[in-house]
Specification:
Elements (H helix, E strand, L loop, with lengths): L1 H27 L8 H6 L2 H10 L6 H4 L4 H8 L6 E6 L5 E5 L12 H11 L5 E3 L17 E3 H11 L2 H12 L2 H14 L22 H12 L2 H7 L3 E5 L5 E5 L4 H4 L3 E9 L3 E10 L2 E10 L2 H31 L1
Antiparallel strand pairs: 1-2, 1-9, 3-4, 5-6, 7-8, 8-9
Helix pairs in contact: 1-13, 3-10, 6-7, 6-8, 7-8, 8-9
């Protein structure tokens, strides 16, 4: 009888090891979904970037690691956010999600797309004048009549989350807000963001401005593979210079850059309608995570809840790697 139980235990360990090996194969593969390495090699860098941003493994990492679902639910029950998603960027494994495909307003997370199009289509040495346009708002650092280099304005927009900067960039690049929004939506379609539509470049409340946690994660992964974008969103602060020589200091609205170990970006958002929103990336011990939090209770809770999700993600990935190593050595 003891031998029978011993054999059964060995069988379970073998099956578990095979499951881990399968996830490793799926997660770390750089080939296309049909496993054709030659086809992957023939893809352009842009095609690889697009494919990588869209890849998310459907295998349940919690089930594979035999994690206690009740314990996980209790640990994450304090989260007030209506939707979230956490993914390991290197393996494509979805670690945790809730309401990931529900359409919600993204607030200033919209500016990720505005920044991306500015970097792709604009000349960073252009001079952009802030015009007194109906889209301008009062609570912004850049004012009508001021002029900036486009590269400066893009950075200020992302750090300060400046709504006027986003509108000025849209007008400069598109000729009109509507034309620029058309470009935003065309890019969203290219990226496969099926639950996303942009009605403005800054994320101010509009019923036609919506997205989902999953779509934002795809967008964030795509953006972070642009080295200039990645270098901007990790800046804790900067000195903003105007063309006329004046300057002012601004700090990144993403508090986790200074308070969360390994944080590398990305963008904050908040309106009374959208609630607290945040897309954040972080690297620790060889793991690189990206998490999206939408419609958190407040500006403060978006940071604490994203931190909780990141901590959970890093702990889960550490367990995952430990199990994989153990299974490999048996």
């Amino acid at each position: 009888m003891n031998n029978h139980f011993k054999n059964m235990t060995q069988v379970k360990e073998i099956v578990f090891g095979l499951g881990i090996a399968l996830i490793l194969l799926l997660g770390f593969s750089n080939c296309s979904c049909d496993g054709d390495a030659d086809k992957w090699a023939k893809l352009t860098p842009e095609e690889r970037r697009l494919m990588k941003s869209q890849e998310m493994d459907s295998v349940s990492i919690g089930a594979t690691l035999q994690l206690d679902s009740a314990a996980i639910e209790e640990k994450l029950s304090v989260i007030t956010a209506e939707a979230w998603m956490v993914i390991d960027d290197s393996t494509n494994l979805v670690i945790s999600s809730r309401n990931a495909n529900v359409r919600l307003q993204p607030a200033s997370l919209t500016k990720m797309m505005t920044c991306l199009l500015a970097l792709e289509k604009g000349n960073m040495d252009d001079t952009v004048r802030i015009e007194n346009d109906e889209c301008m708002v009062k609570d912004a650092r850049v004012r009508p009549g001021d002029s900036y280099l486009m590269g400066t304005l893009v950075r200020e927009m992302m750090l300060q989350s400046d709504n006027n900067a986003a509108s000025a960039l849209a007008m400069h690049l598109g000729g009109s807000i509507q034309a620029f929004c058309d470009s935003m939506n065309a890019k969203a379609a290219y990226l496969g963001l099926n639950d996303t539509h942009f009605a403005n470049p800054n994320g101010l409340t509009n019923d036609s401005n919506y997205t989902s946690a999953r779509d934002l994660l795809v967008l964030a992964r795509y953006c972070m593979r642009d080295s200039t974008f990645a270098s901007i969103v990790c800046m804790p602060d900067m000195k903003v210079r105007l063309i006329d020589g004046r300057h002012f200091n601004c700090e990144n609205s993403n508090q986790l850059l200074k308070s969360y170990e390994g944080c590398t970006g990305i963008k904050t958002g908040y309106t009374s309608m959208a609630g607290g929103c945040l897309v954040v990336s972080a690297n620790r011990n060889g793991a690189g995570l990206i998490t999206v939090v939408l419609k958190s209770k407040s500006k403060a809770t978006r940071f604490t809840e994203a931190s909780l999700l990141l901590d959970f993600g890093f702990d889960t990935m550490a367990t995952y790697k430990e199990k994989a190593i153990t299974a490999k050595t048996k």
